[in-house]
């Protein structure tokens, strides 16, 4: 799939390496598809070579599945390498249930850059398909029939991967290519993104419909079509939304979006006093701790709940709070694009906005969502 801003989508993933300095992670859902594809390959080997031992078909199936996922990884690495060459920072790659996603920290600066980043993935898959077919053709006699068969299947699957990814709907590569062409012709990134995202939603609806039809006629394989369609639908909606958000946040600083007029608490109150006078009175899950005009920490509802209620009468705020050095803070003049990147990269749900050693506001994803919603209601979404 194409690169995009997808922070927060993959919460349960494991790091497996960093080729070319690009972090690669595997989502836990990948284990499901890895098993199914390996099993599918093993069945194909068993059907094609009925005299082959079961253990051998399993080995060939596992090896073919590993090479296939290596192909998916190369596809995503091509996106990442191209993005970095064009000066776009890459957060990493995540392999998951339906393939892989390259996570970038910013959008392309031009339609030409967007086209280059998007198209290089399918071209890589086409190149791999050609390579597998060429090796099977030229060295098939030396490698043996099972290996040749495996190479031919891998060539075919990489061809399918390239073709599927070039379908004209975001977040697929073809959707990104379509967006780049529309961006070039109209000059509007937002308009181009909306059109490409609608293409992705239409494609997703067709896949879901096909999946339901397959299930209706008794083909359980329809579950996969429906599941892929559902994922593409969510991703298409998210892809379009991200561009609108980034467009609205251009030129906006943390101080513009923060919730000001903070309610602060002194460090020497007991937890019982804080619960009675603050947590039960205000709709806040955290309060900055201020001592003589200086913010020294942050007390969260979670931290209070971790203390036995029998100790609330004697435990003081300063003994439970998170020290300010361990709190995520940003200056008021930091761009919201940078703040959003920090929120996504570190998977945090709030930052304190600081000025002169004192918290002057707090910023959460809810504040960003409220800003975006209000800007759209006022018709402030531009045609960037």
Outline of this structure?
The protein has helices spanning 30-48, 54-85, 111-143, 145-165, 173-186, 189-216, 222-249, 254-257, 271-279, 301-305, 336-345, 365-377; strands at 13-17, 24-27, 90-96, 99-104, 286-291, 294-300, 322-323, 329-331, 351-355, 358-363.
Structural class by helix and strand composition: alpha+beta
| Helix and strand sequence | EEHHEEHHHHHHHEEHEEHEEH
Domain module tally = 3
E-strand count: 10
Oligomeric state of the chains? single chain
Measured as a percent range, the helix fraction is 55-70%
The geometry reads as: elongated
Beta strand %: 5-15%
Radius of gyration from CA coordinates: 26 Å
Largest sheet: 4 strands, mixed
**pLDDT averaged residue by residue:** 86
Give the low-pLDDT segments.
Answer: 2-11
Number of helices: 12
For the largest beta sheet, what order do the strands appear in spatially? Answer: 1-2-3-4
Cα separation of the termini:
24 Å
